[in-house]
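Quick one before lunch.
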Amino acid sequence: MLRTPAEVARRLLAGEVAAGARAIRWLDDRDPRGAEVLSLIYPQTGRAQVVGVTGPPGAGKSTLTDVLVAEWRKRGQRVGVIAVDPSSPFTGGAILGDRVRMSRHALDPGVFIRSLGTRGQAGGLSRSTQDACLIFDAMGYDIVLVETVGVGQDEIDVVNLAHTTVIVAVPGLGDEIQAVKAGLMEAGDIFVVNKADRDGYDATHRQMELMLHLRAQAVADLRWDVPLLRAAAAKGEGAEAIVDAIAAHRSFLKQEGDFANRSRLRAREQVLSLVRDALAARALAMSGDAILQQVEMRRLDPYAAADRILSALSEKSAAA
Ligand SMILES: Nc1nc2c(ncn2[C@@H]2O[C@H](COP(=O)(O)OP(=O)(O)OP(=O)(O)O)[C@@H](O)[C@H]2O)c(=O)[nH]1
Ligand SMILES: [Mg+2]
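Model of the guanosine-5'-triphosphate complex:
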């Protein structure tokens, strides 16, 4: 039975999918048993390589994920996939689509696919994603792949979360989307131009090459040679080289001590975001609305309002 946190923790550490799913559900539902499971399994995490796959809507990220998973399985590696859905306007219905695209792995116990809604959170990459990453990691998946959609904050969040970030571009998109956000361009560890079967592939490849060249010049301390790879995911082409590059990046990170660094940053970020959420909720519950209304009416400026809320909070905790 999967009723107690101890039982769920024990069985998910043994790799049981049902136990993992239960833990993720508890965490999503903010059931306190979820936090208990997390505290039991946390010491066993930190082994999986978290790989973020991001790029413009419709770039073929899910199709590519599917062929990458097949390639990893061929190499005997176990993979957890988190497809962050999109309450985004670009991707209505993507969850169903992802299930179909990745359905050939549905019966493979070495693959765990999980679609998560972003629950309207600003930023998109929800707390649930971070939790699911930890659960997959504890379950012993070698790779945890996080697919995010979008052209906004999501992509930056995925970078914060991942050891290795794969940026997927495609021919034919305008510069405004393609000339990927400056932050992303700097953060991508591996670039892929997908839909290589389409017209315009060469031009896009050249454009990306130029951007990577400029980036290389701007970075003084060049240690990782960022690969630019070709894929035609819908035809099953390109997975081998990408999986090789992801493995090479892992070795590089391990060698440089950056694997642990990126894990540490992610853990810090998770703690801080939990604190931010909890504080904001508490502040609002206490006094927030009245003060916020005063700001809306321009009787109080935002800094003064924040100060007032924070002092009320600290008075309250001093009294407690
Ligand atoms: N021509 C061509 N089409 C492709 C290729 N890869 C994917 N597609 C098609 O592109 C469309 C979008 O693919 P998805 O894998 O859903 O793309 P995505 O980036 O996951 O999309 P969102 O998650 O909705 O942003 C589908 O119709 C795919 O069949 C490719 O290599 N060549
Ligand atoms: Mg997708």
